[in-house]
Design brief:
Elements lengths: L1 H24 L4 H18 L5 H20 L3 H29 L3 H11 L3 H19 L2 H14 L5 H20 L9 H9 L5 H25 L18 H26 L3 H23 L5 H19 L1 H27 L9 H16 L5 H8 L6 H4 L3 H18 L4 H10 L3 H7 L2 H21 L1
Helix pairs in contact: 1-2, 1-4, 1-12, 1-13, 2-4, 3-4, 3-14, 4-12, 4-14, 5-7, 5-11, 6-7, 6-8, 7-8, 7-19, 8-10, 8-19, 9-16, 9-18, 10-18, 10-21, 11-12, 12-13, 14-16, 15-16, 15-18, 15-21, 18-21, 19-20
């Protein structure tokens, strides 16, 4: 009973963080921002109970850095306040996006759409699941891999030949994962865009979306090309497969309509109000989520629509969100540690005489791109890597480059880390579904893919730095 009360209190604090941070983004003033930071700290304190030792270590590191800041920095209060604001932003953004995932899991048409993609015959299956991983990833984040991965494994179990079944599961899972990570560089509903556009002075989603879409196309196209070129050789004849019932238009329509509504609502409000895209997302996504739940009730002829939506909202806040305590603590503390760590590191970098502005901007961007996936192999979350490193670099205006070029480098490295780091949710999920260790799923399944994408994205970053 005590645990349930603490979870409910944590859920209320998470909801308050979302509301207050959204109000701050919409111009409510610094009081709302500080209140959001306070409620985020309360939520993290309540959620700390029951997390594993890794997450507890993150919390301990955060406390150590706070002590170090007050011991060494003349503006320690401002640095800690910025770090708490970063954690509050991440908590609010994650809460908003999770509300959409909660609405999607009860939608029968969305599940049917996923099953239709998983049941495609071999000639179309990789592209279908790459498309599905991308489209579902926009609304479900890592939940897209969970949903499509479970459907893919379920579909593959009907294959009697163990050799074919093994190849099929692996290829389906990496197709889903690569489709998902192809959205990381450009979707406004990803942490890569939300964090990087906050860290890079002068950056915005509207200014970076087109070059970042090129990164997404490179990630998706390279995966399809490698799968086509290096198809596994079978010891026996290839079996024939039936085409699933239904047409593409009919099966994909619910998902495409949802994405269209999201795109029009977010882009429209952003253009009309001038509010940052991430601030618009914090309002639009939860509202659409609860409207979607109401629509499901109406279509299923359930009585008491308002009561059901209110009940679902309370369950989401008090049960579903606290159940994701491990993810919330990891993400929020990564932002907090990265922000405060950058404030602590800045004086040492300056006293050491390191002048990054003397280096060629293209070299800095390529180095930033590669350091994110490399440190990912050591367990560093991309949020932590970006929050720690980007503030130490010269602003784009100082380097003489467009902020969009910096966003291309950061988000591309973020995506590559998501494909290879054994510590990321995407790699752990496909490894779990495929019965492989995360290190094997990240490097053996995606090693060549990462190397090819890395070279192509390096070239694109150099081009972007020169033409933007």
């Amino acid at each position: 009973m005590q645990h349930r009360r603490l979870d409910r209190a944590a859920g209320v604090a998470l909801a308050a963080t979302l509301i207050l941070r959204a109000a701050f983004e919409w111009g409510a003033g610094p009081v709302a921002g500080h209140a959001a930071s306070l409620s985020a700290v309360v939520a993290l304190a309540l959620l700390a109970r029951g997390v594993d030792r890794t997450r507890q270590a993150f919390l301990l590191i955060g406390l150590v850095l706070v002590a170090a800041a007050f011991a060494t920095l003349p503006d320690a209060g401002a640095a800690v306040t910025r770090a708490a604001g970063s954690a509050a932003f991440i908590v609010a953004f994650f809460t908003a996006l999770s509300s959409l995932r909660g609405a999607a899991v009860t939608s029968a048409p969305i599940a049917e759409c996923g099953r239709f993609l998983a049941d495609q015959p071999p000639g179309r299956r990789y592209l279908a699941l790459t498309l599905g991983g991308g489209l579902f990833g926009i609304i479900l984040l890592y939940g897209a891999i969970s949903l499509l991965g479970s459907l893919a494994v379920e579909s593959a179990r009907s294959e009697a030949n163990a050799e074919i079944r093994g190849h099929r599961i692996r290829r389906m899972l990496v197709a889903i994962q690569r489709g998902f990570i192809a959205t990381i560089p450009w979707s406004p509903l990803t942490f890569a865009i939300a964090i990087s556009t906050t860290l890079v002075p002068g950056a915005s989603w509207g200014g970076a979306v087109l070059p970042c879409l090129v990164s997404g196309l490179i990630l998706a196209g390279t995966g399809w090309a490698l799968d086509t070129i290096f198809k596994p050789r079978l010891t026996g004849p290839r079996p024939s497969y039936a085409t699933p019932d239904g047409t593409w238009g009919a099966k994909m329509r619910p998902l495409l309509i949802l994405l269209a509504v999201l795109a029009v609502s977010i882009a429209g409000l952003h253009l009309l109000t001038g509010i940052r895209v991430v601030g618009v997302v914090m309002v639009v996504v939860p509202v659409l989520s609860f409207l979607w739940i109401a629509e499901q009730d109406v279509l299923d002829h359930r009585p008491g629509v308002i009561r059901d939506v209110a009940g679902r909202a309370w369950r989401f806040a008090s049960v579903e969100m606290p159940a994701m305590r491990s993810e919330i603590v990891l993400l929020a503390m990564a932002g907090f540690i990265g922000s405060l760590g950058a404030s602590l590191a800045a004086p040492f970098v300056a006293s050491a005489g390191i002048d990054a502005s003397a280096l060629p901007p293209a070299l800095l961007l390529v180095g930033l791109f590669w350091v994110i996936p490399v440190t990912g192999q050591l367990g560093m979350n991309p949020i932590l890597a970006a929050s720690l490193l980007v503030p130490l670099l010269p602003a784009p205006a100082v380097m003489g480059i467009d902020p969009a070029a910096a966003i291309v480098a950061i988000t591309s490295g973020w995506a590559l880390s998501g494909a290879t780091s054994p510590f990321t949710a995407s790699v752990m999920l496909i490894g779990n579904f495929g019965g492989a260790r995360p290190t094997h799923a990240g490097l053996a399944w995606n090693g060549m893919y990462a190397a090819c994408c890395g070279l192509l994205l390096t070239g694109w970053i150099l081009v972007a730095a020169s033409i933007l």
